[in-house]
Design goal:
heterodimer; A: 269 residues; alpha/beta; TIM Barrel; nine-stranded parallel β-sheet; 46% helix; B: 403 residues; Rossmann fold; four-stranded antiparallel β-sheet; 16 helices; globular; Aldolase_TIM (chain A); tryptophan biosynthesis (chain A)
């Protein structure tokens, strides 16, 4: 079983949802970002999404755009992001780690070289925003052949006609983007999320994680009652943006992560 | 012979370029758009309406004009201008906007968004939105707003909301990112009017088809005036819509030499340029795989050109393919060369060209003197230079200071 399968199976046994956290690699700098990454499992993150910085994050709102800029100003690149995963894996084997970003840096790095290096570093899955199933041959197929999960985004505009195409070849989990919009924008109503979960369940047995606009432990708990996972990104990144020092950034992210974890863990009690 | 005009394939690919590299939220919309466009293309009513607006609103056909004094000046090839700068709103951009506005109307969309660099596409979009009674939001980088004040004012007069984009360097690529973010947020009522032959399929093919009227007219006009096809075509390239519009109807005429001119800015060796084919490598941005200005980590590098309309780090995927297979020759011209050509055209022909089109003129002026008198050369005069007065004045002021 892959790390993602094992993790979701354990959580199912414990009857609780996963807390999935997103931070951008190299934000606010390499060392602080690595400290955040290493601290997340202990702070209650069940699955980690690590953003690969890109100059043109077209599907992201202001918080993650700025995180990308901070990381790139600190000269973060794909090679360093993979190095960060290697360092994370030195003392953490159980928590799945998923790289998330845009295709161009991977395309430039070289797809087969990237897959080999990601596998060796300990990456479990990939989310690539601008690679819809129409482009499976570009990365999804070879990644899965190498044993790296390819996690699909589904959205409110992905209708029943299209869902099978999107879910076919998806592995690890399914990420439901609950609002049509950029990251960090408004959040969906509970009714909408409920309907979406019911609809997605008809099409897949993979774990369903819900994201976009989830900012507080209370909100996370509400979603945790409906889905297999809750994704939080922009709210964590705001802790970095508002921090006066690297130490504060690390503390801010890990404290919020702990509070969110408490919300998620207590949700079905 | 296989045709060079058959692309893209069913997946929106020209060879290995193009495609649909966008977020899932947009995929269903893009498929809808492609489907609706295919229907419209075959619908005689749609074509009739398009022809009506091209004639009575845009003012087509645009003349194919013999540039007699420039021909004398160069002392070689016989130079013709395809006068796209005489179109309503002053550039070729309106050809595409009319087409997309009719499509938006057909699809029941009431809100139009667009990105703009020099502002010509913004003005053309605002113009058609006003004509068809649609809400219009234009995204424009703050750097471009500063250098194209007059166009910003024109868009506002036409009822558009102009949203300044501060991200990145505040130029065309950043405006396009922001437009995509708006589209993803307002998927249900919004039509994204991309201004060039880039973006996800079907945009590169659709925009090309709407612009191909330039080449179709040129073909008829040169046959009527000279009794034969031209020997060469020259056009400037940013995203490449005016160029592909002129080139496409001639791609299968193997004796027609075709030349695209990129913006070399301060010179390609300086790294400050906008020449994606001559100074970039393949990558994926804004929905398509094409040549891009990027660093070793795949991060996009900001383009530089004196002409805001060419200031983009990518190029339409069909051009990337035509470059790859060698059907079209792609060269480049620096800011200074374009400015010299700008002045020459003003003085000798009484036509103030856009700085974008001045790149095509500069390349033509290099080639024409070396060619025989019977060589027929058509230059796409894609836009007029009224919008560039500030930039040219500023540059002349700088030169005087240094003189």
């Amino acid at each position: 079983m892959s790390r993602l399968q094992t993790r979701f199976a354990e959580l199912k046994q414990q009857n609780r949802a996963a807390l999935v956290t997103f931070v951008t690699a190299g934000d606010p700098n390499y060392d602080a970002s690595l400290a955040i990454l290493k601290g997340l499992p202990k702070a209650g993150a069940d699955v980690i999404e690590l953003g690969m910085p890109f100059t043109d994050p077209m599907a992201d709102g202001p918080a993650i755009q700025l995180a990308n800029i901070r990381a790139l100003e600190g000269r973060q690149d794909l090679a360093k992001t993979l190095q960060m995963v290697r360092e994370f894996r030195q003392d953490e084997q159980a928590t799945p780690l998923v790289l998330m970003g845009y295709f161009n840096p991977i395309h430039k790095y070289g797809v087969s070289r990237f897959i080999a290096d990601a596998k060796e570093a300990g990456v479990d899955g990939l989310i690539v925003v601008d690679l819809p199933p129409e482009h499976n041959a570009d990365l999804c197929d070879p990644a899965q052949a190498a044993g790296i999960d390819f996690i699909r985004l589904t959205t409110p505009t992905t209708d029943d006609k299209r869902l099978p195409k999107v879910l076919n070849g998806s592995s690890g989990f399914v990420y439901y983007v609950s609002v049509a919009g950029v990251t960090g924008a408004g959040s969906a109503t509970l009714e909408h999320v409920q309907e979406a979960v019911t609809r997605l369940r008809r099409h897949t047995d993979l774990p369903l994680c819900i994201g976009f606009g989830i900012r507080t432990p209370e909100h996370a708990a509400t979603i945790a009652r409906l889905a297999d996972g809750v994704v939080v990104g922009s709210a964590l990144i705001d802790q970095i943006a508002n921090a006066a020092s690297s130490e504060q950034a690390v503390d801010g992210v890990l404290s919020l992560c702990a509070a969110l974890a408490e919300g998620v863990r207590g949700a079905r009690a | 012979m296989t045709s060079f005009r058959a692309g893209p394939d069913a997946n929106g690919l020209f060879g290995s370029f193009g495609g649909q590299y966008v977020a899932e939220t947009l995929m269903p919309l893009i498929h809808d758009l492609a489907e609706e466009y295919e229907k419209a293309k075959l619908d005689p009513e749609f074509q009739k309406e398009l022809a009506y607006f091209q004639r009575d609103f845009v003012g087509r056909p645009s003349p194919l004009y013999f540039a007699e004094r420039l021909t004398e000046h160069c002392g070689g090839a016989k130079i013709y201008f395809k006068r796209e700068e005489l179109n309503h709103t002053g550039a070729h951009k309106i050809n595409n906007c009319i087409g997309q506005a009719l499509l938006a109307k057909r699809m029941g969309k009431k809100r139009i968004i667009a990105e703009t660099g020099a502002g010509m596409h913004g003005v053309a979009t605002a113009t058609v939105a006003a004509r068809f009674g649609m809400e219009c939001v234009i995204f424009m980088g703050t750097t471009d707003i500063d250098r194209q004040q007059a166009n910003v004012f024109r868009m506002k007069l036409l009822g558009a909301t102009v949203i300044p984009v501060v991200a990145g360097t505040g130029t065309l690529k950043d405006a396009m990112n922001e437009a995509l973010r708006d589209w993803v947020t307002n998927v249900h009522n919004t039509f994204y009017m991309i201004g060039t032959v880039a973006g996800p399929h079907p945009y590169p093919a659709m925009v090309r088809d709407f612009q191909a009227v330039i080449g179709k007219e040129t073909r008829e006009q040169i046959l009527a005036q000279e009794g034969r096809l031209p020997d060469s075509l020259v056009a400037c390239i940013g995203g490449g819509s005016n160029a592909i519009g002129l080139f496409h109807p001639f791609l299968d005429d193997k004796d027609v030499q075709i030349v695209g001119v990129e913006a070399a800015g301060y010179g390609i060796a300086t790294g400050k340029h906008a020449a994606s084919l001559n100074g970039g490598v393949p990558g994926v941005l804004h929905g398509n795989r094409t040549f891009l200005l990027q660093n070793d980590d795949g991060q996009i590098i900001d383009a530089h050109s004196i002409s805001a309309g060419l200031d983009y780090p990518g190029i339409g995927p069909e051009h990337a393919w035509l470059h790859d297979i060698g059907r079209v020759e792609y060269t480049s011209v620096t800011d200074d060369e374009a400015l010299t050509a700008f002045h020459t055209c003003c003085r000798l022909e009484g036509i103030i060209p856009a700085l974008e089109s001045s790149h095509a003129l500069a390349e033509a002026f290099k080639r024409a003197p070396t060619l025989p008198k019977e060589h027929l050369m058509v230059i796409n005069l894609s836009g007029r230079g009224d919008k560039d007065m500030q930039t040219v004045m500023h540059h002349m002021g700088e030169q005087e200071k240094h003189a």
